[in-house]
Amino acid sequence: MTIYPEALMQQNAQGETPLILAVSLNASVLVLQEMLYRYLRAARISDLGGFYPVPLLWNSWVNVHKGAKGQLVLSDGEAEVIEIVKRNRIQMKSVSGKGDLEGDLAIWWHKMEMLEAGQYKEANKEGNLPFHVAAGAPPYIR
In this predicted model, which residue has the larger pLDDT, 102 or 120? Predict the structure, then answer.
């Protein structure tokens, strides 16, 4: 990333950026942090399927992926993945505040916060942040 930061702007044949691939492959917080530092806009680029890094990360924690015909799409042992998703959902339901986050859930949440922040830090040419545009806020609210 240091030698060739322009690589972070590239997309493969499926439209995936290095950030999308890093999220999909469960890269460490430090890797995601460095990628966002070098190319913040990557958090707002989707692949050809319309998937952005935030929903991909969210789904990696709380959903079992299904294919076009409704079949389960699992890369690990099927039963293991289903049990992991069940455990993750139970963990999320038991959290009442950020102070309750620990272990893998805390790491996952930290990644979510970094990606979310990346989506909302870059203003458009009118000076509005994506959050303001999405909310329909007038330009004087910044």
Answer: 102
